[in-house]
Amino acid sequence: MCSGKDWGTMQLDDAATILAHAEFFEICDNEQRRLLAFASERRRFEAGEVVYKAGDIPDGAHVLISGRLRTTPEGGGRFHDLSGEGTLVSAVALVIARPRPVTVTAVFASETLFVPRHAFLKLATQYPDLAARAADHIRRELTGYLGALAPLKGRIRKDQI
After folding, report:
1. Going by fewer Cβ within 10 Å, which terminus of the chain is more open, N or C?
2. Would the pLDDT of 153 be above 80?
3. Backbone φ/ψ region at 97: left (φ over 0), alpha (ψ -120 to 50), beta
4. Which residues does the UniProt record annotate as the domain Cyclic nucleotide-binding (predicted)?
5. Angle at 60 between CA 47 and CA 150, to 5 degrees
6. How far apart are CA 36 and CA 45, in angstroms?
7. What's the mean per-residue pLDDT of the chain?
8. Taking the C-alpha atoms of 32, 113, 82 and 25 in order, what is their torsion angle to the nearest 10 degrees?
9. pLDDT tens profile 6-47
10. Domain containing 100: what range?
């Protein structure tokens, strides 16, 4: 039996704390994180279970709580492992409903906090300054990705794209 706070409040506080560990959600204040936590849900994935497939349009983003996830590009290629509490999987899925270019699979038993796009967009509508911070954050991430690809530009032929 719980003492002090009720079970729902403790779960809400836990979810808000998980969001606070995710770098992306530093753009939110404590109240905004609590509102997102209320709309979020914990999800568990067994080893080998697919979180979403390349080509899927996820309804939001996942914040890793425990375990390890692997991203594999559509059509194969080099995979990338994600680990560490607070790792955000697909920040762009919070604002854009587009097919994802990678399959995300649990390497071993993993738990995430799923943040639905509709909840984030509703919050961004209510707080225009949050929407601006989200856009800046995503822009910086994309600029970083493009900068990392720049050295490869000369090595990629047009017929390979």
Report:
1. N
2. no
3. beta
4. 24-141
5. 85
6. 21
7. 85
8. 0
9. 435 558 889 999 999 999 999 999 999 999 999 999 999 999
10. 10-141
Which CATH number covers residue 75? 2.60.120.10
Round to whole Å and give the CA distance between 101 and 121. Answer: 22
Give the pLDDT confidence score for residue 6 in this predicted structure: 45
pLDDT tens digits, one per residue of 73-92: 988 788 999 999 999 998 88
* Residue 102 belongs to some domain of the structure: yes
The answer to the question of residue 4 being in a domain is: no
Whole-prediction pTM = 0.81
In whole angstroms, how far apart are CA 62 and each of 47, 70, 158? 16, 13, 34
Q: What SS3 class is residue 104?
A: strand
Return the amino acid letter for 78.
Answer: R
Q: What is the pLDDT of residue 152?
A: 56
The separation between CA 77 and the C-alpha centre of its own chain, rounded to angstroms, equals 22
Strand partners for 103:
72
Amino acid at 103: T
